[in-house]
Amino acid sequence: xxxxSVNGTSVHYRLDGPPGAPGVVLCNSLGADLHMWDPxxxxxxxxxxxxxxxxxxxxxxxxxxxxxxxELLAQDVAALISSLGLVRPHLCGLSLGGMVAIWLAANAPxxxxxxxxxxxxxxxxxxxxYDERIERVRAGGVAAVLxxxxxxxxxxxxxxxxxxxxxRARAMILGTSEEGYRAACAEVRDADLREALGRVGVPTLVxxxxxxxxxxxxxxxxxxxxxxxxxxxxxxxxxxxALEAGPRLAQELLLFFEGTKRQAGT
Length: 266
Fold this sequence. Notes:
The chain is α/β, with parallel strands linked by helices. The protein has helices spanning 41-47, 70-83, 96-107, 129-140, 146-153, 156-161, 163-174, 178-190, 217-226, 241-244, 246-264, and strands at residues 3-6, 9-16, 23-27, 49-53, 90-94, 114-118, 204-209, 231-235. The relative contact order is 0.17.
């Protein structure tokens, strides 16, 4: 169980892929742990050094006293990248992880070489809805929001066809600490990164889900329009594209990484 002390906390992480290969850092959504990226590993791990981590209060990373902020979690990621010696890795985040990735690319421009933003937004469409979720978790634990979250994460077709994947997602949500979940809900509620978009200076891919009710394609359009030179792609999935369409998402990421490599002339 690799743990690293950074930024006043301990972070659980995993490194996969050949040492010395180009780095890829993957940042999780609210209520998920690093295993949400498992379907991408067979492809990404062949030619990349892949860093996955559990955000504070998620998976095996302990909770700390709130409130959390996108900036705080981004600083955790930056400290981990530096401590593990990854040199300008590609950075990919989904939902909350995408918000963290935007902050990092905008405020630490020399740290990463490219940015992939999956099923995320600069500002959540219904931020105050997270207050209700916080109160439900406070009253009944993470289990109180379990089925509602799963309904947002996956399309009905995927839930019916892949019950084992849904069961793994259910275990991830239930494995999230109540304190960490509430603090991260408040973080998502309060985050507003619209001003930061114009300061992202690395090649950027925006991935939307056509069936995503949490961060619909309109949110992706704001990102693609606000980040200079960004391009976008839409997949036929709901919110958690990494689990619902992992191999397809990995393919899109690899094509994007290869394009940034050619663009850089290396």
